[in-house]
Every structure is written in C-alpha cells, then in structure tokens.
Amino acid sequence: MKTHHLKSILHCLLLVIPLTMAAQQYPTDYFKHPLLLPVSLAGDFAEIRPNHFHSGLDLRTDGKTGQKVYAPADGYVSRINISAWGGGKVLYITHPNGYKTVYMHLDAFCGEIGKFVHDYQYSHHVFAFDINLPKDSIKVKQGQVVALTGNTGGSSGPHLHYDIRYAENDQAINPLYFGIRYTDPVAPTIVGIKIYPATSTTIINGSSKELNIDDAKVTVKNGKKKTTRRIDTIEVAGRFYTGIYAYDQMEAGSNKNGVEKIELFVDGQLFYRYQVPTFMFEETRAINAIIDYPQYQRNRQYYILTRHLRGNRNHWSQPYRDNGYLLFDDSRTHRLEYRVSDYKGNTTTRTFFVRGTASQADNKDTLRNLELQGDPIIYYKPFTITREGFQASLDAYTVYENDEVVYSKETDAARLSPLHRITLKRHPLPPHQGFTVRLPIPPKVKPSLIEKLAIVCINGKNVSACTTRRDGDMLTAVSRSFGGFAIRLDTVAPTVKAVNFSDGKSLKGTTLTVKIGDNLTGVVSYHCHINGEWVLAEHDGKTATLTASAATMAKGRNTVTFTATDAVGNTTELTCTVLKN
Asked: Any bridge partners for residue 546, and if so which?
C-alpha cells in the first residue's frame, strides 16, 4: 500500500474517532450531582485557557466557600493533591464503573479523608503534596460528604471544579454527557469571523492581511456624497483559511463559556468540524496550534482556525480536505456558513460569501520555497541546535509544522553568560512539549557559587527560572517556552514579612500570616514553628501568603518562626516573640 494512501486512511479514521466518542452512551443515571445546589456553570468543559483546555465544569457555589461536596457514587479515594497553585486542594475518587471524579479548589477535606491529610502533613512536615492511595484504603459511599468547596489554587472566585475521567488513563470527558440536568435557553454568540491569507501571495479584498468579515466594506460615490456599507462577499485571490470566535451563556448576563461544536459548510458541504468530547492531558497544549495564537495573546479572544498544521496530532480540529485551506480559482461566488452549537443543541449560524479572483502562482510557502535564514526543523523529526556552547534539543513533534529555528546571541557585560535566543520564523507558537537546554558553567564563577546558578528563559520583561541541574561543567534545564536563555546567579534569599503580627506585640485574631516572595528561582519550601514545634502553614499562591493557626500558642510569650527557602538553597528566617492574651 502506498504511503499517501495509508495516510488518507489514517486521516479518515481520525475524523471518525471523535464523532464516535461524542455519540458514545455514557451512564446518565450513575453519578449524582456533587452539590445540593441548582446547576449553574461558571465554566464549561474544554474551554480554552492559556496553553491548555479546561478539564471539567466550574460549578457555581452561590458565591460562597464551605458548601458541602457529596460523593456522586460509591468508590475509593485514589489520589490527593495539594498545591498553592493550579487546582489547589484536589480530591480524586475512583468508582467501580471505570471512571474517576475529581474535585478542585477545595477549602477542606472531611471525615476520614481530612484526618489522613492532617496526619500526612504533620508526619512529613509539608503543606503541599501529591500522593496516590492504595485501592480501598479510604472508601466512600454515594451521598457521603467528602469535602467543602473553596477558592484555593488558581481559582479566581469560590466555585467547585468537577471532572469526570476514565480511571485507567485519566482521559478527561465532558461531565455533561453523564446526565447533569440544567437549563440553557440561550444560543451561542458569534463574536467574529476572520479570513486569513495562507501564503505570501494571497490577496483578501485588495490586502495581504487577514480580514474580519464585519470589517469588509465598500464605499459608493454618488455625486459629492459618499456612503459606506458592509458587504458579505469577500474577494480572495489565492489560498486562505478561516477562523471564528464564539462563546455560550446559560442565561443572559452569565459567564461567557465555551461551545460544544463548530462546523463550517462550503457550498452546502461540511468542510470543517471542531468538537472536544474528550482529551488526554498530554495533548492539551496543541490548542495553541488551532487558534489564532497572537490574537489570543493580545486580548484572550480565541479564534479557532480551520487550518491544520501537520504536527498537530489532535482529534478535535477536523478539516475534511486540504488541511483546512481553501482555494477558489473559478471566479464563482461560494457560500460559507458557520454553525455553532452548545451542549443543549441551541445553534447559531452565520453565512458569508467568498468570490475567487485571479491570483499569482500559488505559493505554498514550504521550506523549499523560502530563502532560509535559520536551521530547518522537520516537525516529525528530533532536532538539535548547537552554537557557541549553547545547545537546545527538541524531540519529534515539539513543533507543529516544518519551520526554521533562528538563533541569535546578545552579549552583555552585566550577565554571567551571553543571551542565546532561539525562535521559530514561520509559526511562532509555543512548543508542544518541553525541550532540553544546555549551557556551560561560566569560568569566572567561584566553585562555592556554582550551586546558586540557574538557567533562565527571557521573553521581553518576563524572566522565568528553569529547574536546573549540574551535569559536569554544563548546566541543563527543560524549557516549555522559546526565547532567550542565559545563566543567572541567585544569591538573594526569599523575603518573609509578617502581615498581622509583630515582635513583642499581642496577636489579634486566630491565625499568623506572613507574605513570602523570591526574586528569581522561587520559593520551594517553607515552614512555621511555634515554640519549637512544627505547625502547618498553608500557602496561597494568589496572595503569596503563608497562614498558620495560632491554636497551639500558649498564654503569654511565644516564639514564632517562619522560614522560606528558594530553589538554589537560599533561606530566610523570621523570628518574633508574639504575646497571646
């Protein structure tokens, strides 16, 4: 069988898989709702977030924390993850029917689960941890209170994040397929539709730039009077693709949530479909390849594109021919219709017309057609670039399309090492997965300070330290961003500042709070001791605070110590004498 025939068959299979999954019959009466509140969604499944899909539903909790969370079915606690970031306090329950449910941003764990968390934190002297539990070590029954809702981690307000996943591989599934009952009389809103040039020779209404169809206008002169009106027929010479930005609401004035399905019909034939019934977490960064990424960076409007980059191996974005590109070279007017649907089947349509006009020879902008300015990278092959001691190594499918890696170096006497910058020329998207960066240890650094070195990635004013390890005379790190790479020396210890208490003063309230921070590599460990005894300090990443209960403080004078340590071992200790009445 010829290779291109095999590829065609595989492509057809990929188109069928998501439709089958979307139509699959999930159990609709097995899971009870985890809250005793009317169902109101502050966020939908697979909404586009920075570098990832939203993996579940955000359920409103009446604007409050502390609402009871009920186990939706029998099962056992299979994992507990506590972090100052992301999901905050997270609970995983595995059920005997092959699914697991996940609850994020919790305020507290209840019953036997809460006791386990308390005992683990105090025996290991940690707040944050991530642990898998043996099967049936903590069993739960349907309707049992397992936690209280909160606002922990990266949450921007009180709510419950609720996932349903396959237990065997953590594949996320839209929870709305499991029989959650809610009302939604409002059809999706189409904010904008764009036409994009696919090549350097494509002309759209006389311009080589992208066009929002609502901005397509014509000016008519009648004597001295000029009138401008919007037109629905766009003239395009050359290959192009389209994009759409749409959102959904359960009722007027509610959150602008994601949509269930987007379809584009060309002259009555289905040309493109976008739908995300399920996804694997290792796939999720591919959303950067299916949206207008620069537009999303500017204003968080996610125009979903018909264009399919070949290194994007997802099953949600499905062009039915020509990788999502269109070419009308017949001088005819073609009818294009977008249909956008929500999970209740409410649908909004938008029709526009494109007329093909005479064009220059179609330039597909392959690497062979370009004058190379960098090193060619093939999306399905590993790639390594080495320049002046700097090395970056990328696995296959780290980029989404054949491209050029452009290298440049900036010297600066104030830096320990030059700034080595790598960027993609044609498709400046974030990498799909992390890649390895290696830099030599600067010879002028004293041996005693080598452990204080870190590789940093610099993009504009943003400087982020990569987790760095020493490998002989080299430093190695993994980065999930392209940009400039250099070595920085971090000898500055974290900051620890008291918020609601001071040395020699009486404590007002029932907690001790400090604000922590670090200038470069970040705080990786922290502790609180009251009169020499370790006490749990909860870390809130949003407010950069540690909060400890003062319940163990004795009446009179107490010695309170907070410590914070960064990724290269710099430590700050704050000790105060605090009075308790």
From this structure: 514, 539
